[in-house]
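Ex. 9. Protein: RNA polymerase subunit sigma-70.
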Amino acid sequence: MHQPRGIAEDEIISKCKTGSLKYQELLYKQFYGYAMGIALRYSINRDDALEVVNDAFIKVFNSIKSYNADRPFKAWLRTIIVNTAIDRRRKELKFQLHVEIDNAMPVSNGGNTIENLNAKDILKLMQQLPAVQLTIFNLYEIDGYKHDEIAKILAIPESSSRVYLSRAKEKLRNILRSEAHNHGRSVG
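Predicted structure tokens for RNA polymerase subunit sigma-70:
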């Protein structure tokens, strides 16, 4: 699944700009793992992530002629994957956001048990979050967006972004406590 020896990334991209299916396939294979890693963070399951990856690569191939080589390709690809995942999630969130959340009580901020986990543990726990919480947690905690930016991206009130993030963290803590209790460990 690696690119053949001697074919540089810029050559693959250049050939993709001409519409070469062979080089599109090479590009897909070369960046599939990277793309899937990003998509999994925003997806409920692997099938959902695969759809995000495939949709993102369709967008890549349709717009690769506008790719500016002054910007790292991975950064450009990452932006497309994240935006594709968010667009997909936004459609689903419209139905979930009908609950009046502005008047909801915020959940407690509790302990910092999540800070003691490695990335793989956190990704596993994150898959248990509802879609809206997963998306906002990713945008805020991992991708570094601010609540006002998240509000614009998802077309929700800024306060909703804060509440969903707080709920996501609380749910992750509860899952962690439950798993630790089931394994006889003490978690604070």
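Check your answer against this statement. Residues 98-105, 107-114 have pLDDT under 50 and may be disordered.
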